[in-house]
Structures are given as structure tokens and as C-alpha cells.
Amino acid sequence: MSTGVSLMLTLAFLTLIKSVPIVYAALGGVISERAGVVNIGLEGMMTAGAFSAVVFTNLTGSPIIGLIAGIFFGAFLGFILGFAATFFKVDQIVAGVGINLVALGGAAYGLVLIFNQPGASPQVAQLGPEQLLPQITTGETALIVLGLLCAFGLNWFIYRTPWGLRVQACGENPRAVTDAGLDPLRLRLYSVIASGALAGLGGAFLSICEVNLYSDGMTAGRGFIALAAVIFGRWTPWGATGAAVFFGFFEALQYVLQGRISWLPSDAMQALPYLAALFAIAGLVGRVRAPAADGVPY
Amino acid sequence: MKVVLRLLAGPAGALLLAFVLAAVAMLIAGVNPVDGFSALIRGSLGGRRPIAETLVQTTALLFPALGVSLAFRAGLFNIGAEGQLLMGGLFAGAVGAHLAGPSWLTVVALLLLGMLGGGIWGGIAGWLRARFNASEIISTLMLNFIALSLAGYLVAGPLKSPLASGAETAPLLPNNGLPAFPSIGSLSFGDTRLTISILIAIATAIVLRFVFTRTVFGYELRAAGEAPEAARRSGINMPRMTLIALSLSGAVAGLGGAAIVTGVLHRFNTSLSPGYGYTAIAVALVGDLNPLWVCVAALGFGILEAGGLMMQADAGVPKDAIRVIEGLIILVLAARRYFATRATSAPI
Amino acid sequence: MRGIRKVYPGVIAVDGVDLDLLPGEIHALVGENGAGKSTLANIAFGAVKPDAGTVEADGTVGLVHQHFELVGRLRVWHNIMLGREPRKGAVVDVGRARSRVAELAERNGLAIDPDALVEELPIGVQQRVELLRELEREPSVLLLDEPTAALAPAEIATLFATVVRLAKRGTAILVVTHKLQEVIDYTTRVSVMRHGKIVARYETANTSVDEIARAMVGGELPQVAQREPTGVAPCFAARDVSAGSEGTTVTGLSFEVHAGEIVGIAGVEGNGQTALADAIAGMIPYTGSIELVNGGPMIARYRASMGIVPQDRHHEGLVLNWSIVENAILGRQNLPGIRKGALTDWRAARADAAAIVERFDVRAASLDVTVKTLSGGNQQKLLVGRALIGDPRFVLAYQPTRGIDVGAAALVQSRLIEARNRGSAILLISFELDEILAIADRVLVMYRGKITGSFTGSEIDRGKIGRLMAGLS
User: What are the helix (H) ranges across chain A?
Assistant: First the structure.
């Protein structure tokens, strides 16, 4: 195979890998915002997922347990944000920032407390072929496919099922939902929990699938890139997924180009995905419309 | 009961909560809270040197916190203080090794450069928001990472010091450092890291307070933050205000970066800030966005930061516990923020 | 409803109310703004829980809100079936939903397209959607909160025809309104609320508009200032103005307002008034010209000679968390008297605020109270006062008496007339035809973004204007 083609293939595969966490987080962002809650805390929920996945994998030796733990702890943080947003009616953005700090600090604290080494955890078992359908797929592929299924599922849920349609109503006009005899606060809470679970899953992928440890700050802003993906993708599941892959591409590009193009410094390359996100949110002028009640406590 | 809840949801409650949580964190770490707190107090206030260090940390937090407060007052969420701080420090550090002249002149120039660096960085986000309605929450955060990359590249490459082996700029010319904090009676601070930067920070706070309450610009800025639609209809140019507010916010944070470079490090490297820009958000909220109270809040957090090291060394409490506490404080204060002001006009 | 009581911070909204609704009757609940009617209706519906008292209903209760609570981005069938969507397994059975909606519409004689996107529908049709949503639940009691506020006279007749049909079928209907003529024309019984209590009950057949009005106000209606003769020099001119986008537009508008004249723009809400107001205020771009005669084009610089009362005092006019003083100079903070170099002259601002409070009867404990604590009427008086205090040559007043009590409304109208008598040119945009007829010298009718009629002095004829407002000629 010529180096050009193999390079393309590497790039393609790497894009998929790099996109997965962002896709999960972005899907979480979509459902949360559709329900009317701005979820700035995606970053923190990913961190919680990543860290707890490592802790529990270390504890039990099984990455599957770790994965579940990641989902659970992400959902837990989602519950905190959702609860604060719906029943205490806090400023969702400030609360999200708070969640991020709590998660980041908590993970750093936990690193010292549990593993006795600040900065990074020891290596743990990785989610590989042995854990899942052996001989059929690797852990990474499984989660990639799962990601696609989630996008499908979310799309179907939001647009075709009664509950999904009600969630849409929550984000546009919660008063209408109340009039219909339903509880928009409850719906919002569940949506944010779901978004936390998804983000947690994305974070777990980062720590126990792509690599096999947790290091301080490993989420590196992906939760926020996911938010950019939500906007770029116009608050639709497939749009957000596509946007997430777009950003993942830039991250993959950075890896592939590193070392190959001597005059482009690797440090500068690291900025690529963030620059991409910056351009993405700038590129949409007035054509985008968030759910009408997004961010407004009800 | 309601009164108690409202009180608890305010800065007083936040501080109480911090106290309780710190104790819990210590217990989790298997440390007697009494030992933990006494280590904290000793490390922050137990003598001339600890106090000096506390004030150093206070200053490092105060600048970005003032910047964040300004943006908040204008209705904008600046979570990019970290990057703006970094850029300010970068500008000062890059030039400081080569700028010769009378001390008072060069130091002022470096500080102004810091404001320029931070101001540009904040201005980018401001422009994106003004022109494209791009969420400043996302853009300022992205710019944080970009700043890190940019600074990292520069100090490992073009700006790398010929003297040091690590990635950093050449040290400042001896003339270009901030003078030490003046002696009080027999107490001198020449051997500590404390400089007049704390005085500059407090002066900045006073200036900001004056701007908010007495100037027309401050009035318009506050109107833009409190009631964007009413402000727009009253003739205030909202895009321009956004741009100016975020630039100014970044400039103040950048000033902080320059202060660290000229006062503490005497050079620039990317470990300039252990997250001051993020902690500054908590500081700004605890200070209720009022510049004078923000000073007090910064002092409180400065005590935590300075004492935290001692807490870790002496009592074995990991200092990351403090990050968690900061986050929880923000969560508690989020409730109060909603009661107090406007709906955010963030477009996401 | 028995013994209903509801208290909000600082105000007793409903104070010991008993109300019965009989099947088949059309019962009007009238009262000034702030009397408690909407609160009572919401309590009857169940959206608000009373602090005391009981509500009993023989079946479900439906409520059509004054400001519709629909989900704009969803389709008509979805809005109507929200919460009771027919299912096919785990998915919504769209076909069944649509046919149910079509059948419901037909049974009630209301034409509707189940697939339309609600936000694209005109207001009158949106109301139909809201109505159908309530009817879907087959309520035995139907509450209508200010149902005709956004309707043209023809649509009002259609609405009441539907209402009468429902009543004949046995539904008990409560109409919350302040339009007394409609009360006389369509209802069977009237209850009058004032300050949270029911102060009078009438059989509609035995009473009159005047009697009801007196009961509403508790005495004689306050007098409004008299118009005096003035000159006719043109002051403000709009020529061939087109502006606006989706939702509100004006095309090729041309008219003048003279000094010492009040020109009223009559029209049903949603016919371009907001686009016109925004263009004059400089908030949106426009083609054509808008000028102060002998003053040049209307740009922000001329705010000194222009006073604007915006439509929405809470979101467009006042900063609720600020004090009266701070609000008094909003929009005027750059005027020479208030601005001293780069600083704000707070002493001058306070003096201004005091003048406004005094001349416009703003009832407040002090100048430093937060505007949020003022009643709607006082907030509006502050807003109007701020617009008029500088003796502007031109005033744009958009719904200046929206949602305030009769006393405050009379004061606002008086002050506008006094400004007119002093030579200001006033453009009044209002959705209350009565208000325009009461104080305007000249009436222009707006329909679908164009001026379709102009009436001066004795030409002013309610019937003709009403027809033009509905797009008939």
C-alpha cells in the first residue's frame, strides 16, 4: 500500500477514535439543551466518567465495570446539575462551571487519595477484545458502533416518540407542557441525567478504551468542543454527531501531521481542534436558533 | 426559614460551606480537621513569610477576578481569564528581557504590555461575540487552550532563553522587576515574593469600582448586563460594549499575568498559573462582582492557596481538595446569582 | 369556587372570592388590570394553588391563555395532542393524531390545518389551536382569558359564535375581559372584581356598560385632560418607509405628525406596528425616510428631542433591579445635563427622578427603591415620565397604558394630552381602539403593514375604523 493511502486510512481511523468522546458528549448536549437546560458541565461529567472508570477498573479488574461506573458517575453529576437547574432554579451556566471545577478537583484529589500519585493514575486493564464479543470486535470499535447507535436512538427518540416530542416542548415552552398535565421539571431533570450519562460514557472511552489510565486534565476541553458541536449541528443528533466528527478530524490531523511536516510545530498543531471549534461557532450567523426556552429556569 | 436560606445562599453561606467542606475533605483524607486547619492557618497567616505568600496568592487571584467581574457585570461569561493571564505574561516576558531603561519606565511599559496581551486575547472573543454572536463561553475557553499552545510553542522555540535549559523566556533585565513591598516599621519583605503588585491590584479594584458607580461607561456597561434589551433601546451600542467589555476584562487579567512575570517569576513559562483564571471565577462570584468585595474574597482564597501547601506538607491533606471546594462554592452561589440579576443573553 | 384567597408578596391578589359557574352560561369576569381576574382564572384552572378556599368542578377545566402557551416549532396536531399523543407501539401515531384533530376541528366549526407549524400561523389561527387544545380534553368548564385582545372585530364575532355554540352544548364558560361592550353583547352574567374581591354581580340583560364600569372603578371614572386647539406645523414625517422581517413588516408607509397633534395608529396587534415603532426608534434598518422636520433624519443623536415609550416596560424600558434614580436617566445618560465629562452627575439624575416622580404621580417609598417593587401602573408612569420629562418635540408612545389600572391610565393619557397642548407631536400606537378614539386628533388604520385609512376629527367613525382594522373596506 502506498504511504499516501495508508496515511489516509490512518487518518480516517484516528478520526473515528478521536471523535467518539466528543460524539457522546455532544449527544448529551443535544438532549439537555433540547429539554431547555444549557449543560456547561459536560466537561466535568466527562472527567467524572473518565476518572471513575479507571478507579473501578482498577478496583475490579474489569473494564466493563469501569465503563458502567463511568456512565453512572457522569449521570450522577448530571443529576446534580439537573436538580440545581430545575428545582433550585440556579443560573445554569454558573452551575455548570461549578460542576466542572468540582469534577476536575475531585479527580485530582482522588488521584492522590486513592492512588497516592498526583498527576496520573497507574495503568489499568483496557477495554479490549477480551472483554466484549471476542474475535469479533475490539473495544474501540464496539464503542464507535455504540456511538452511532446512540445517535440513531436519540434521533428516533426526539422526533418519533411521545416523550421525545414532549422533551422538545420543554425546551421551547415549558408552560405548554405544564398545561398538558406533565411536569417539565421532571423531564428536564431526566434529560440532564441522560446527558451526564452520555458524557460519562465518552469520558470512560477516553480513559479505559483509548488509553488505559487517567491523567489530570485529560479531557482537555472536549466537553466544550462538544458544545460547539451542538451549536454547529443545530441542536440535532445527527448534526451534532457530524460536527463532532469534524472536530475529531482536526485532532486526528494533528497526530498524523506531527513530525511529518517539519515547519509546523507540534505545539501549534495541538491548537487545531480548538481553532476549528472557534471558527465553527463564528461561522454561523443568525441562521441558528437554540430551543426557545434554553437556559431559562422555569 | 426563608431568610436563613437567602443568607446561606450568599457569600456568607459560601464561606461557611467552604469551612464545612474543608473539614470533610480532611476527614476523608484521614486527617484530624483541627490539625488540618491549624496547618492551614500556620501556612497562610503564621508569620511574616506566610503572610507575604498569602498576599502573593491573593494578588495572583485578584487581577483575573476583577477582570471576570467586569465581564460578568456586562452580562458576559469570561472563562478565558486563564488564557488572557497567560498572554499578558507572555507579552511582558518576551519583551522584558530586552527592554532597557529607567526602572519605573520599563516596568510600567511591561505592565501595559501585559494589559495589551490580555486585552487582545479577550478582544478576540469579544469580537466573535459582537460580530457573529458566537458564545463567549465557548470561545474564551477555546482561546485558553490556544493560548497554551501558542505560548508553549513560543517558549520552546523562538523565545526560548539561551540561558536556561527548560522552556522559558530569558530572565528579565534586573531593572525590570517590580520593586518589593515597602517595609512596614521594622518588617521588611525584601526576602519574600511580595511586591507592590498587591497595591496595584487593590488600586485597580478601586478604579473599577469608581468606573462602575460614577462613570457613564460604567452605567452603560451595567445596563447592558442587567437588561440587554432595555439597554439596546436606550441607545447603547451593544456589540461595541461587548467588544470593549471583553477586551477590558482580558486586559485586567493580562495585567495580572504581567504582574506575576515582573514580580514573582522574573521570566515567562507556561506554568505561570496553576489555574488562577478558573479560581478567579469563584472569587468573582464570592465577591458578588463588587470590586471591593472581590478583594476580600481574593484574600480568602489566597489564604486557602497559601495555607493549602502547608496543609499538604504538614497534615497530609492533598491540596486538590481546595479545587473541589471552589467548585462547590460556585454551585452554591449560582442560586444567588439567579435571584440577583438578569437572564443571561448567552446564545447557546 | 368558595372562599378563594391568594396572596403574593406585598399584594393580596384574591381576597375571599366565591364564584359559581352554571352549565350553559357565558359568565364574564371583569375588572381593571391588577384586580385579580387572571389570578382567579388560573386558580380555577388549577395552574395556581390558592392559599385558602376550595375549587370544585364537575369535569375537566380548560383555559385559553391571554398569551398563548403553544410550542411554536411543533405542528398543530402535536400542540393539540401534547400529553395525550396516540401511540403505535413506542412511536407516535401521527396519522391518528391528525385525523383526531381534523375531526375535532370540524365538530367545533373551526378551520385548521393539522400539519401547519404553529409559529407560522397568524395570531387568530393560533388562538384556534389553543382553543382546540383545551376542547380536546372535553372540558365541562372553559375559561377564556382576554380572548379578544389580539383579534379583529370580525374574528371576535367568529370566536363568540364558537363560544355560544359550546355553551348551548352545556359547557360552562367564563370570559375574563375588560372589554365591556363584548360583555353586554355576548354574556349572560357578569361578576366584577376590584382589589381581589367580587364587588358586584349582574345579570347582563339588566345592566349597562356604564354601571359595570362604575363598579369596576368604584366610583366615577377619572377624567382625562382636555385637548386644546393647536397649530398644524408638520413636525415628524415618514415617507415610503419599509422595514421589518418575518412576523412584522411595513411597506411603503407615508404619513406626517404635526406639532401639537396626537396621531393614533389603530390596528390589531400583528399588523406591522412593531416594525414601525422599531424603525422610528432606530432599532431596525429601513428604506425610505423618517425625519424630524427641521431636524434631520432620526438617528440616536436626536434622542434629545424624541421621547419613546416602549411596548414592554419590563424587557424594553426598565432595568427592574435598579432604583428609580438609575432608571430615570436610562437613554438620557449622555445628555449634557446628566453627563459631566466622563462621569454621571448623580445629583442632576436625582433631581430628574424627583421631577418625574412628582409630575407623574409615581407612588414609591423613596427614589432609591428598586423598580421591581413598584406596581405595574407606577412602573409605567415612570416610563412615560422619563419619555416626556425633557419636553421632547416628538413622542412615540407604543401601548402606553398596557396592563395598568384605570387611574394610572388616565394620568398617562392626560400627560400625553398636555404634552400635545404644549406643542409636541405625538404618535400613539395602541391596540385598544377606545384609547385611540379617546385622545387622538387623527386616526390612521394599519393593516398588514400598510396604512389603509385616515380619519380626522369628525370623520372618526368607530364602525368604519373597525372594518378597516379587519381588512374589510
Answer: 3-34, 42-60, 63-86, 92-110, 139-160, 162-172, 174-179, 184-204, 222-232, 237-257, 266-270, 272-283
Q: What is the pTM of this model?
A: 0.87
Q: What is the ipTM of this complex?
A: 0.84
Query: Would you say residue B195 has pLDDT above 90?
Result: no
- C183 with C30: CB under 8 angstroms? yes
CB of B66 within 8 Å of any CB in chain A?
no
Q: Exposed/middle/buried for A285, CB within 10 Å: 0-12, 13-18, 19+? A: exposed
Can you tell me the distance from the alpha carbon of B284 to that of B276, in angstroms, rounded to the nearest whole number? Answer: 12
Q: Chain B within 8 Å of C347 (Cβ-Cβ)? A: no
Closest partner residue to B233 among C281, C326, C333, by Cβ?
C281
* Amino acid letter for position A120: A
B342 inside 8 A of chain A by CB: no
| Per-residue pLDDT tens over the stretch B226-284 | 999 999 988 899 999 999 999 999 999 999 999 999 988 888 988 889 889 988 998 99
Q: Taking a C-beta distance cutoff of 8 angstroms, is the pair C306, C297 a contact? A: no
pLDDT score at C69: 85
- CA C50 to centroid of chain Cα atoms: 26
Residues of A in contact with B325 (CB under 8 A): 105
Helix axes A222-232, A272-283, angle to 10 degrees: 30
- Quote the radius of gyration of chain C (alpha carbons, Å): 24
pLDDT score at B24:
80
Contact with chain B for residue C53, Cβ under 8 A:
no
Dist. CA A85–CA A93, nearest whole Å: 9
Q: What is the mean pLDDT of residues B158-182?
A: 78
Question: Helix axis angle, B291-315 relative to B48-73, nearest 10°?
Answer: 140
Cβ of residue B164 closer than 8 Å to a chain A Cβ: no
**Shortest Cα–Cα distance, B208 to chain C (Å):** 13
Q: In what order do the strands lie in the sheet with C234-245?
A: C248-258, C234-245, C286-292, C296-297
CB contact (8 A) between residue A172 and residue C73? yes
Whether B333 and B285 have beta carbons less than 8 Å apart is answered as yes
Q: B301 CB near a chain A CB, below 8 Å?
A: no
> What gap in Å lies between CA A183 and CA C47, rounded to an integer?
12
| C322/B340 CB distance under 8 A | no
Chain B CB within 8 Å of residue C283 CB: yes
Q: How far is A250 from chain B (nearest CA, A)?
A: 14
Tell me if A166 and C82 make a contact (CB, 8 A cut-off).
Answer: yes
Determine the Cα angle at C304 with ends C298 and C310, to 5°.
Answer: 70
- Chain B residues within an 8 Å CB radius of A218: none
Contact C326 B229 (CB under 8 A): no
Question: Residue C188 to residues B9, B300, C63, C108, C179: CA-CA distances in angstroms?
Answer: 52, 69, 19, 21, 15
The residue behind cell 514580580 is B263
Phi, psi (degrees; rounded to nearest 5) at A291: -50, 135
Instruction: Give the pLDDT band of residue B123 (cuts 50, 70, 90).
Output: very high
Helices (H), ranges, chain B? 2-8, 11-28, 33-45, 48-73, 81-96, 103-132, 136-156, 197-214, 216-226, 228-233, 238-260, 276-286, 291-315, 321-340
- DSSP code for B215: B
Grid coordinates given for A248 = 475529531
Q: What residues in chain A have per-residue pLDDT under 70? A: 1-2, 127-139, 259, 261-264, 284-289
B216 vs C281: CB contact, 8 Å cut-off? Answer: no
Closest A-chain CA to C119: A172
